[in-house]
Amino acid sequence: MLLLSMWLFWSLVMSSSASSAQSPSSSSSSVGDARALDGLLQGYAYRAFLNPRTGIVYDGVVPSNLTGIQISAMRLRSGSLKTRGVSMYKEFRVPKGVVEQPYVERLVFVYQNLGNWSMQYYPLQGYMYLAPVLGLLAYDASDLTAINLHHLDIRASDQPISVQFSELRSVPDGSVPKCVLFDLNGSINFSNVLSGNICTTFQQGHFSIVVESVAPFPSPSPSPSPSQGGRIPRSGEGQEKNKSRVWIIVGSVIGGFALLVMLGVLIIWVCKYKKRKNMHKMERAAEVGEALHMTTVGSTKAPAATVILGCDVGN
Ligand SMILES: *[C@@H]1O[C@H](CO)[C@@H](O)[C@H](O)[C@H]1NC(C)=O
Ligand SMILES: *[C@@H]1O[C@H](CO)[C@@H](O)[C@H](O)[C@H]1NC(C)=O
Ligand SMILES: *[C@@H]1O[C@H](CO)[C@@H](O)[C@H](O)[C@H]1NC(C)=O
Ligand SMILES: *[C@@H]1O[C@H](CO)[C@@H](O)[C@H](O)[C@H]1NC(C)=O
């Protein structure tokens, strides 16, 4: 029992230390890449403004090392955003009631279509994209030459913002498409697809439609663990972390089991040894005529474990 509890304690410490040691570095690095891209695209999208009129979509040009990404920018008065919304901005429809924080007089919505770069910046292990990742982010419009701005916080109140995906790959047989939202803090939420190609959200961020990929896991897992099936990995690194944790737990279970078996073998061996020694003693005692005395000594000297496990040395 002592060994069993020591092993349980040890495996808990191992798994918790493994997860706490790895999580900060791995999650922040992938989030950082996407945030750096947001900052870069904001600057390039603002370049599309020359003499911008409010409520008009201006398409921007990305640097050549990011060919395949489309960006646009639209400037709005925050009052009109709140009372009227934006009926259509590329795939997005922004209802009335959206407010920004902190308050600014004018703001810019930067639109991103990450195209073939979607998997690079938003890796999602175990899922397949049916549509490019689309982003909608709000920024302060007071300086249209600014670069690397930090986004404003926006929230929809009564009605959600909707995203109607136009280029949707066909859904593989038997799989259910899901909307995925990557918020700007790096967390991921899944929700149901509406009317075949619409996702809704109460906040800004990056959106797409995915299905669980049918490809089998690269490494065989000996036992399907409920914690891995129920939780959604954040990114490639998250999945790796989860996997290594599962391996630690599996290792602990096997190690603990091996220890128990070894302990059992040891006890049996000690029993047999004691029995044999006792026999010798009894034989010798019988010769001298002191059999009764020696048997009592044998049983009182038996170690606790052998008594508990029914190893009766006395007889
Ligand atoms: C692409 O090029 C731009 C400008 O040349 C540079 O600022 C940026 O860091 C590059 N981005 C990537 C992802 O290589
Ligand atoms: C996306 O496609 C463009 C050409 O259309 C190519 O230059 C670029 O390298 C591709 N990006 C990725 C990540 O494959
Ligand atoms: C992100 O985190 C910040 C600070 O922790 C919080 O104020 C903000 O509401 C979060 N945003 C989202 C979209 O969850
Ligand atoms: C994600 O889902 C959880 C629960 O389903 C919800 O509490 C949370 O607000 C959602 N986050 C976002 C960013 O939508």
From TrEMBL:
<dbReference type="GO" id="GO:0016020">
    <property type="term" value="C:membrane"/>
</dbReference>
<protein>
    <submittedName>
        <fullName>Uncharacterized protein</fullName>
    </submittedName>
</protein>
<keyword id="KW-0812">Transmembrane</keyword>
<keyword id="KW-1133">Transmembrane helix</keyword>
<feature type="transmembrane region" description="Helical">
    <location>
        <begin position="246"/>
        <end position="271"/>
    </location>
</feature>
<feature type="region of interest" description="Disordered">
    <location>
        <begin position="218"/>
        <end position="239"/>
    </location>
</feature>
<keyword id="KW-0732">Signal</keyword>
<keyword id="KW-0472">Membrane</keyword>
<dbReference type="Pfam" id="PF06697">
    <property type="entry name" value="DUF1191"/>
</dbReference>
<dbReference type="InterPro" id="IPR010605">
    <property type="entry name" value="DUF1191"/>
</dbReference>
<feature type="signal peptide">
    <location>
        <begin position="1"/>
        <end position="18"/>
    </location>
</feature>
